[in-house]
Amino acid sequence: MRNETIAIHAGYEPEPTTHAVAVPIYQTAAYAFDSADHGAALFNLEAEGFRYSRIANPTSAVLEKRIAQLEGGVGALAVATGQAALHFAFVNVADHGGNIVSVPQLYGTTHTLLSHILPRQGITGRFAESDKPEAIEKLIDENTRAVFAETIGNPAGNVCDIEALARIAHAHGVPLIVDNTVATPILLKPFDYGADIAVHSLTKFLGGHGTTLGGAIVDSGNFPWDKHAERFPAYNKPDVSYHGLVYAERFGRTAYIERARSVYQRTMGSVLSPFNAFLLLQGIETVALRMERHVENARKVAEFLRGDPRVAWVNYTGFPDSPYYPLVQKYLNGNASSLFTFGIKGGMEAGKTFYDTLKLITRLVNIGDAKSLACHPASTTHRQMSAEQQRVAGVLPETIRLSIGIEHVSDIVEDIDQALEKACPSARLEAAE
């Protein structure tokens, strides 16, 4: 099936009791067992089924199957937020200690997770000088447990060379984990280029309506955990908490996602509610159509900004002179992201005036909504980072991040135009002279 069909149908057929066409909301905490032996088999991971909604739920299971099929993976785990998904994704490879080697262009909270939170748990985040494969390879050593990148950086907009990063990661015996939130599997399927694990904030483009928090981890099923037993003992040695179960032996290609569910979801409980899973499913049904409009609107807005004398610079990878333009052609089929940044002449103060006088475009820190959104990263999403860390991540003091929605593009441009006029009224006159 193609994306448009998967997004509507995958993971669910009308259930046999009521024949409901819409996915039911299974608002239950627990599930009845047929017998004591049935319950034991479920808890021993010997039988498939539901036992407690902290571990799995039928509504969430449909969402997981749909996302896994969109990404081309063998399984997925839906959790409460995108940050919970990232946390589980990292500790699921590095809970015996080690380091995660990352590109520097990251969402601010992800940077905080790697630089401040995980080190308290014995896991070090290492940040390369750039997103170039050779910069990543310099930091990989015998203690590295994964390479990490955002397929499209937030807010830098950089496009990572997934194939090259995967090749380097695999040469050193570690998986490539990618955050595919901004691209979504509609624009990019990272498993096709060698990535092993994909993470999503479902709150963003996949959900699309800005009402619901959620996250997901997707397993490609391609990383050979059993061939790297020394580096990944958790997959190759008996787990005493499950009576000596060995994940790589029991689950094979689904070992990673089954361990994430059985170890981390079960014990740490960052659970996605069935109602939130239902809402996210509604958003996913239209994601292919929305992404078309997002991309087209963003191209027109970027072109307007680039041609305006009041704008100092536009960082949009759809322009042929962007260093990432070749990667947009290779990985995104020429469809540059609707998330991009720009700066106004007059610096930070002019940027703040622009930001404060927007009317249609909403000022907030979310992205991927049907509505057009704006953010000043230096004072919000990346506030905890130093000025140098911000710069490397693609954030300057005057940077405005736009997430272009699906409104009529003329209305979006008109709002930007009126805000620019208030922010730097003399720039257009000076250009005319």
Uncertain stretches: none
What spatial form do the alpha-carbon principal axes imply? globular
State the order of secondary-structure elements, H for helix, E for strand. HHHEHEHEHEHEHEEHHHHHEHEHEEHEHH
CATH architecture label of the largest domain: 3-Layer(aba) Sandwich
How far is the first residue's CA from the last residue's CA?
57 Å
Q: From the alpha carbons, calculate the radius of gyration and give it in angstroms.
A: 22 Å
> Any idea of the CATH class of the largest domain?
Alpha Beta
- The CATH superfamily of the largest domain appears as Type I PLP-dependent aspartate aminotransferase-like (Major domain)
| Total number of helices | 18
Largest sheet: 7 strands, mixed
Portion in helices: 25-40%
The oligomeric state is single chain
**What do we call the CATH topology of the largest domain?**
Aspartate Aminotransferase, domain 2
Number of domains: 2
Explain this structure to me?
It contains 18 helices and 12 strands. 40% of the residues lie in helices and 13% in strands. The model has no long low-confidence stretch (mean pLDDT 94). The protein has 2 domains: 3-283, Aspartate Aminotransferase, domain 2 (3-Layer(aba) Sandwich), CATH 3.40.640.10; 288-432, Alpha-Beta Complex (Aspartate Aminotransferase, domain 1), CATH 3.90.1150.10. Strand 4, helix 7 (162-171) and strand 5 form a beta-alpha-beta unit. The N and C termini lie far apart (57 Å). It is an alpha/beta fold and 433 residues long. It is globular and about 80 Å long. The strands form 2 sheets. A 7-stranded mixed beta sheet has the order 1-7-6-5-4-2-3, with helices on both faces. The longest helix is centred in the C-terminal third of the chain and has 20 residues, at 287-306.
